[in-house]
Amino acid sequence: MTDEEINEILTKANSFTVFSDFLKISNHLKGRKYWEVLSSVYSRADNLYQFRHILKSVFFSNEPGREFLMSEEDRGIFNNLPDSITIYRGMTEREFRSKSFGISWTIKKEGIMLRKN
What we know:
The protein is mainly α. It has helices spanning 3-12, 18-25, 32-44, 52-59, 72-79, 93-98. It has a domain at 3-76.
């Protein structure tokens, strides 16, 4: 699949269809291209909850070049992180008990609503 064909498919997609369109073409994406397209699609997609059962497998692909999921600037920041950082995840009690966590995390505690039920 050429870059032009990939761009044509994904350019026509809106934020609610772009991830499903990625899934349709993902087997044609190899190495660096897979990770770069996934990065672009993931940041554009608005309805990822419906894909929650497949998202982890997409991100755990064996395609080489995983570092291209990040931009060169982001890789520099990542490579300069300390060995240990605190991250946060807002979740339901059900998710917490299941230990089957999603893939969205943040380093910013502000804005996370904390409550006990």
